[in-house]
Amino acid sequence: MKPLERRAERRLKHPAGTEVAAIRYLGNPKFLPSIRMGDWVVDCQKVGDARYVGPPAQALSHEKWTSSRGTKYAVLMLESPTHGESMTLSQFRKKVRSIESKLDAPNPRTRPIQSNDLADRILRLWTASGKVAKNMSRA
After folding, report:
1. Cβ-Cβ contacts under 8 Å for 65 (sequence gap 6 or more)
2. Phi and psi dihedrals of 26, rounded to 5?
3. Are 77 and 8 in contact (CB under 8 A)?
4. CB atoms near residue 55 (< 10 Å)
């Protein structure tokens, strides 16, 4: 993955406050081509038994990668805040249910947010530097 990361590092728009992050998908998911470079992504990942929703990151590229064992992956390369904060899925669900009830799910699925207003309200769950926003009255 190092060559993918190095290539993505050259695309960072704000290298002083961001870093490259990657999401690996087994195979080639159907939704991946619909993600455009610069689109905002809020991801949910499982760590052990817990699920965490990461801070908003911007798409840099999609790549194909084969592991040393021969497993093929599609990789979404992201520009992510260096000191961004994740929140638990349960915290996210409590905050997002008044914004977009379809995202209040125990097993979230990838979905585009078509409304700019809804997308902005979801992005404001974090500060511009990727910290979890304390004041939710703006959302």
Report:
1. 1, 4, 24, 72, 73, 74, 75
2. -65, 130
3. yes
4. 22
The average pLDDT across 123-132 equals: 94
Which residues lie below 8 Å from residue 8, measured CB to CB, with a gap of 6+? 20, 22, 60, 61, 77, 79
Inter-residue contact 104 to 97 (CB < 8 Å): yes
Task: Quote the Cα angle for 124-80-26, to 5°.
Answer: 110
Q: How many alpha carbons fall within 13 Å on the CB side of residue 4?
A: 21
DSSP state of 59: E
* Predicted structure pTM score: 0.86
pLDDT tens profile 25-56:
998 899 999 999 999 999 999 999 999 999 99
Average pLDDT over residues 116-129: 94
Rounded CA gap, 116 and 127, in Å? 17
Domain positions in the chain are 2-138
Residue of 135, 96, 137 whose CA lies nearest to 118: 96
Q: How far apart are CA 127 and CA 71, in angstroms?
A: 37
